[in-house]
Specification:
27% helix, five-stranded parallel beta sheet, 573 residues, binds flavin-adenine dinucleotide
Length: 573
């Protein structure tokens, strides 16, 4: 996308009566924005729960004790919103029906059951998403919980405070993982059951692998590629039967298998929905009824990389959509450009983040792409405490436009993913990453930031300076088709190497290259990929066509699920 130019325009405010359904992320943002735009508008914010504007994203951290004060989760209270923004906030109040012809909603006061109607000129729906409850026998067990709001959090926390010693978490997405970590922090024995062979389904498997290692390192038992088929009571505890035949018993079960849009209200009003129940909106966040807008977890948006519809139930998109919808309601030409799905999760000491398309999604859609891996210190290697992070970069094979990126490591992940998300938003190519001037002082980064390096490595690939072979092409069945040279030092080789690899340290390549067998294609590797790149350049000058194993031994080990966390490998930088 091209840079947007802002010009000062005097907007003519047409005062409106705006009714907002849902008072948390999208709804509360919309209400505050509306007031900022129009001091005289009538703004009614209706929320079913007791609280408005609470931090759903903080719920797991209160369970785990990292956010000790429950009250810290209230970004704003109903009274605070009323006072600061002169809003009409109605909590414990539910909108039960939309009468589109009359432009009014049917409202129920949940404290006394009173029903009434409320007229609107513009209606904004931000009803969020509901946790999916799989149709399992026994799923209504009193110790089986979901986590969406404060009462859910209070329920789980009370079970833990009252002495729960063990938990089963079903689902390894970001909410599941945050719950797992929080319960481990409270010293529970935690077992995670995930249907897929990896946690965090939005990540590619080799990027998720360090999270799995970290979970195990912290005593979490993982049952990947398995599923809970039934829950049952076991003397007041919960027994979970797994598809694999394993039976587990715990004091508490948390179901975190995903969310679905809370769109029954919209459906009943005849608004256009997708097959999966998301509310269809245009680029102004307008539904199929021009007087009704919808934002947040309940809507379908556009994936700007793949150009297809998607759902991104995350707080950032909900907030931005709310602002755009309200701007449009009050006469500004605001447009939503889609959601990249930029996300980040912390699992104990490892953080993983993603933006744009994953390799899995590109493959599933048959989109041509190339990829590189970079392992670099999160700051200068000579400054104490440098830790290795991995960037996986996906880009178009013709012009190098960035399609997606994933970053994993103990530190510095957040800043790299945000740069890469900005780069995708701006329509950058890998050549632009080479050019980025990023902040550097030894405690923070490197003169060549890992993002620059990712640009260089991808640029090398596109310019033909470096050819890659990928770890998955070197599985047990195909590895023998290659001559594999390990260019590290003998001690490193002894500590572990790719089966069948021949040792030829980088320092010996210039003299020893003629000894390299020529009967098979040649693949070189080191720990991170950098020494192998130097070696491939030497061999190319001798007329050979070597390939570098992308991302070195670290990526090879991640792909072949043999992950050992890197130790002092920053010195290769
Ligand atoms: P919500 O914030 O869920 O608000 C919807 C509100 O509408 C609800 O309070 C509901 O009671 C109310 N409502 C629904 N129907 C009606 C009705 N008919 N009448 C009245 N009220 C109604 N996102 C991130 O980006 N990062 C994170 O780290 C992160 N962590 C999360 C952790 C947890 C445990 C959870 C549950 C979510 C997390 N999210 C995170 C997701 C993020 O919270 C949501 O994407 C965001 O809140 C969506 O905003 P929303 O306005 O669409 O819905």
């Amino acid at each position: 996308m091209t840079a947007r130019r802002l010009v000062r325009v005097e907007y003519r405010i047409v005062s409106k009566k705006l009714v907002i359904v849902g008072g948390v992320a999208g709804g509360a943002t919309a209400a505050a924005r509306a007031r900022r735009l129009d001091e005289s508008a009538e703004i009614v914010l209706i929320e079913r729960g007791r609280e408005v504007s609470f931090a759903n994203c903080g719920l797991p951290y209160h369970i785990g004790g990292e956010i000790p004060r429950r009250s810290a989760l209230f970004v704003q209270t109903a009274d605070g919103l009323m006072e600061r923004f002169a809003l009409d906030v109605r909590t414990r109040t539910e909108v039960t029906r939309i009468d589109r012809a009359a432009r009014q909603v049917q409202v129920r006061d949940l404290t006394d059951g009173r029903e009434y109607t409320e007229a609107y000129e513009a209606l904004l729906l931000s009803p969020g998403a509901i946790p999916v409850i799989p149709p399992l026998p026994g799923v209504d067990h009193p110790r089986a919980c979901t986590l969406r709001n404060m009462p859910d959090m209070d329920r789980i926390k009370k079970l833990v405070d009252d002495g729960a010693r063990s938990a089963i978490v079903i689902g390894g997405g970001f909410i599941g993982l945050e719950v797992v970590e929080s319960l481990r922090r409270r010293d529970l024995d935690v077992t995670l059951v995930e249907l897929l062979p990896q946690v965090m389904p939005n990540l590619d498997p080799e990027v998720a692998a360090p999270l799995q290692t970290e979970l195990r390192r912290h005593g979490v038992t993982l049952h990947l590629a398995d599923a809970v088929t039934a829950l049952a009571d076991d003397s007041g505890r919960v027994r979970a039967q797994l598809k694999s035949g394993t039976a587990l018993t715990a004091d508490l079960v948390v179901l975190a298998v995903g969310v679905r849009p809370e769109s029954d209200l919209a459906r009943a009003a005849g608004l256009e929905l997708t097959e999966r129940g998301a509310i269809v909106v245009d680029e102004h966040m307008r539904t199929s009824d021009p007087h009704i807008y919808a934002v947040g977890d309940a809507v379908q948006v556009r994936d700007p990389v793949l150009g297809e519809p998607t759902q991104v139930p995350l707080a950032g998109p909900a907030n931005r959509q709310a602002r755009i919808a309200v701007d449009h309601i009050f006469g500004r030409p605001a447009r939503y450009h889609g959601a990249l799905g930029t996300s980040i999760v912390r699992v104990f000491n490892v953080t993983a983040a993603a933006t744009g398309a994953s390799e899995k999604r590109l493959r599933a859609r048959g989109v041509p792409f190339r990829k590189v891996y970079v392992h670099r210190g999160h700051h200068a290697g000579y400054f104490p405490g440098a830790q290795v992070l991995m960037i996986k970069l996906l880009f178009t094979p013709d012009d190098g436009r960035i399609l997606g990126a994933q970053v994993v490591g103990p530190a510095g992940v957040d800043k790299r993913i945000d740069v890469l998300a900005t780069a995708i938003h701006a329509g950058f190519t890998v050549a632009d990453l080479e050019d980025l001037e990023l902040a550097y002082a030894p405690p923070y980064g490197a003169a060549k930031d890992p993002v620059n390096i990712a640009g260089y490595v991808a640029g090398n690939a596109l310019r033909g300076d470096e050819d890659f072979v990928y770890a998955e092409e070197l599985d047990d069945a195909r590895r023998g088709d290659w001559t594999i040279i390990d260019v590290r030092e003998p001690a490193e080789y002894q500590a572990g190497h790719i089966p069948g690899a021949i040792l030829m340290p980088l320092g010996q390549v210039r003299e020893g290259w003629e000894d390299i067998p020529r009967d098979k294609p040649l693949a070189l590797y080191c720990t991170l990929g950098q020494r192998a790149y130097y070696a491939t350049r030497i061999l190319r000058a001798k007329g050979l066509r070597p390939r570098n194993i992308a991302g070195g031994l670290l990526t090879y080990n991640l792909v072949h699920a043999n992950h050992t966390p890197p130790t002092s490998t920053c010195r290769e930088m």
